[in-house]
Amino acid sequence: MNISLIIPSYNTEKHLINTYNSVRKYYKDVEMVIINDGSTDNTSKWLEDLEDNNVIKINSKERKGHTYFYDEGMRQATHEIVGIIHSDMIIGPNYIENTLKHLERGKVVCATRIEPPIHPAGKEKIVMDFGMEHDDLKFDDFEKFCINKSSELKDITTKGIFAPWILYKEDHFAIGGHDQKFSPYGYEDSDIFNRWILAGYEMVQSRDAFVYHLTCRGHRWNKGVGIVNDDYESTMSRCRRDFIRKWGDWIQNDSFQFPIINSKYDIGFIIKNSSMQLLEVLEPWCSTVYIDDVNGNQYKQYIEKEQSNTIIDLSEKIKPYDNEKNNEILVTIDGNTFLQQDFKIINQLSAIITDNGEIGKFALGNLEVEIFQMKDYVSELVYL
């Protein structure tokens, strides 16, 4: 088969073995690129000892994250079609055939996830319990369900995009691959989905291709279901802030979890009576910040605290209050009157500006907005 499956793993040895076995149950010769991402469990030894001529092994002692290893795995793959599978997934029968049959250049095809009832249901997935841990998976029941459901949903597709997915390797790297500012993990998927869509790729979900996804094992829950690892929240917070800095907006999806991409505008925040707390809340949501404490302790403390968390030069982004303001949209904010409802407006600002659609000055809650130009820069985010 002209496809390589990319499977990074961090501390998911026992789940990874199930993933590997599920692939080999149905496909004896399909190429897998299996990656040990600096694990501290027994993943390295298992991978080293694995005897399989159709597995390309990347056994890294250093933790680089799946954002990096997705792309490195694709580079080392020998086939022109590549697919991402999480190491806490097992595939169902005809998984490859039922995704490949929909694939062509300029298209990304994802499978349908079946997940245990630890997350809410959704139109894009099926919630059904075939086990919660690596050692209590009901493989036979899962297989029978897949066979019956595949017959019921044969050849049906809907619009959708989420892991696991397949595409042509050349299409992925045509836009630069994953953005490594989201390393080691965190919203790299939402970023690449947005960029594929803006590049004009068609996103298709195959309704008769299934995986069972135990969800969130490894970097988040490798100490047990629901037990969040110490560094998870800080890593996700850093990547969340960088996602907002890049896109000028937070992730939005429709009822099928398909991305809704808003416009990206050149917005400057003019902050009167600024504070460290207010600067921390507002800085990611704009292109430039003008504050009245640029030479004071708040500014210095914020730069010292935040600069190590982003590649953006914050000393260039945060400017004195009386600096010349060249942004196409300016929002004036008074720290003495700023309320939670005003932050909700900030969260929706791109959509509000788009809907308003007029040049001029107007008030939004306690915010003063002045629009000089409404150029949309979102298409410039496609290529790295």
- The CATH homologous superfamily of the largest domain is called Spore Coat Polysaccharide Biosynthesis Protein SpsA, Chain A
How far is the first residue's CA from the last residue's CA?
30 Å
Number of strands: 16
The percentage of residues in β strands lies in: 15-25%
Uncertain runs are none
Shape: elongated
The major beta sheet can be summarized as: 10 strands, mixed
Task: Name its key features.
384 residues; alpha/beta; Spore Coat Polysaccharide Biosynthesis Protein SpsA, Chain A; 2 domains; ten-stranded mixed beta sheet; six-stranded mixed beta sheet; 13 helices; 16 strands; 32% helix
Summary, kept brief:
Helices cover 32% and strands 23% of the residues.
Describe this structure in words.
With 384 residues, the chain is of the alpha/beta class. It has two domains: 3-247, Spore Coat Polysaccharide Biosynthesis Protein SpsA, Chain A, CATH 3.90.550; 267-381, no CATH class. Helix content is 32%, strand content 23%. It has 13 helices and 16 strands. The chain has helices at residues 13-26, 43-49, 66-76, 95-100, 139-152, 169-174, 188-198, 232-247, 276-282, 297-306, 314-317, 340-347, 349-356; strands at residues 3-9, 31-37, 55-60, 81-84, 89-91, 107-115, 125-127, 157-159, 165-168, 202-213, 267-272, 288-291, 318-320, 329-334, 360-364, 367-371.
